[in-house]
Specification:
Strand 1 and strand 2 (about 120) form a beta hairpin. It is elongated, with a radius of gyration of 41 Å. The chain contains 12 helices and 2 strands. It folds into 2 domains: about 45-275, no CATH class; about 280-310. It is mostly helical. It has a two-stranded antiparallel ribbon with strand order 1-2. Keywords: Membrane, Transmembrane, Transmembrane helix.
């Protein structure tokens, strides 16, 4: 029994490491037969581009509402501004990737009538359109809001050349890659969230999640992408192949391994690998906040010194007043004793009075 289990594990490990036999497929994902492969000049493609535009507008509105609500909640929890922005982005990515996994694992094969009776959109094609619009939206956020041009171009090339439901070879490959990519994105964003929370900041959980992300990156971009996406069967789409190579080069430039090599000797190497470098506006804002906190500390210290000085003055005044009261009481008691001694008759006069009484 143990020998059979060991042999099965050995065969599985050999097939996993053998790149020539590397064909990973997740069960219950989209099948290529469910796609309706059509010519590139079909009118449905043009109408789907209009649907992508509406979906991008939907993602923009949804993201603005989500950011405002979560930012107000985190502000009430007294989380700093930099951590708030990082948590907002990480939770947004986790939410979409979780929804992406649920959509990919769904077994719905129905068609949706978005355009006309002759040209319906399948469940799988709608999923591709949703993913494509989301990555276009993410590219805009990275470029225009955060200034991360490399990450923005990665998302832009990914949405332009990989999310193409009208080529038959992508039906199963892209769905499998999206599944693995969603899991990897959830792992790395959970690492970011745990690093932003002070309770987990110095524990081993962020480092463990970061190691899992590094291994999954090797799995995706060293085994999966070159075997199944860069060197597949020959196709007639030269422009798409060039876009794939551009996307793969940009992904390697923005890889976590290059960032890890650059900041290996830094103290805060994990934060440098996980988060983009702060912009000039963020640095200036952090400086303003630091100066404001220092000024508040100075005001508090100054007020405390003033209160201490006033307390000392009051204590000295009360002490002087108590001393005066004691001195006045002491003077009054001395005057009373002196007056009593001065008013008493002498001893000779008392004896004379007693003798006179006896003679009588």
């Amino acid at each position: 029994m143990l020998e059979e289990v060991a042999n099965s594990w050995t065969v599985g490990l050999h097939s996993f490491l053998d790149v020539s036999e590397f064909t990973p497929v997740v069960s219950n994902l989209w099948d290529k037969e469910t796609f309706n492969v059509q010519h590139i000049n079909n009118t449905k493609i043009k109408k789907s581009d209009v649907l992508i535009g509406y979906l991008i507008l939907f993602w923009v509105i949804l993201y603005l509402m989500y950011e405002k609500c979560l930012n107000s909640l985190l502000r009430r929890m007294r989380i700093p501004l930099m951590q708030r922005s990082r948590i907002i982005r990480a939770v947004w990515n986790c939410g979409f990737c979780f929804g992406s996994i649920c959509y990919l694992k769904s077994s719905t094969i129905t068609t949706l009538n978005f355009f006309s009776e002759e040209q319906k959109v399948t469940h799988e094609e709608l999923g591709v359109i949703l993913h494509k619009s989301f990555y276009y939206h993410q590219a805009g956020i990275e470029i225009f809001c955060h200034g991360a041009w490399t990450k923005g171009w990665v998302n832009l090339l990914f949405a332009s050349f990989i999310m193409n439901p009208y080529q038959e070879k992508w039906c199963t490959i892209v769905s499998t890659f999206l599944f693995y990519k969603a899991i990897d994105t959830i792992v790395i964003n959970l690492c970011r969230i745990s690093l932003c929370i002070p309770h987990f900041g110095r524990r081993k959980l962020p480092k463990l999640l970061f190691c899992i992300h590094c291994l999954s990156w090797i799995y995706l971009y060293i085994l999966f992408v070159p075997k199944l996406m860069l060197w597949p069967e020959k196709t007639n789409y030269t422009r798409v192949e060039l876009g794939l190579w551009l996307w793969f080069i940009a992904e390697c430039i923005d890889s976590v391994w290059l960032r890890l090599v650059r900041c290996a000797r830094a103290i805060h190497w994990l934060e440098i690998c996980l988060f983009p470098p702060p912009t000039q506006e963020a640095i200036e804002l952090a400086g303003i906040q630091k100066r404001h906190r220092n000024s508040l500390k100075k005001v508090v210290n100054r007020s405390k010194k003033t209160e201490l000085w006033q307390t000392m003055l009051c204590a000295v005044a009360i002490k002087k007043k108590i001393r005066r009261i004691r001195q006045a009481k002491q003077n009054e008691s001395e005057s009373v004793t002196n007056s009593a001694e001065a008013g008493l008759p002498g001893t000779d006069s008392v004896e004379e009075i007693n003798n006179e009484k006896k003679d009588q």
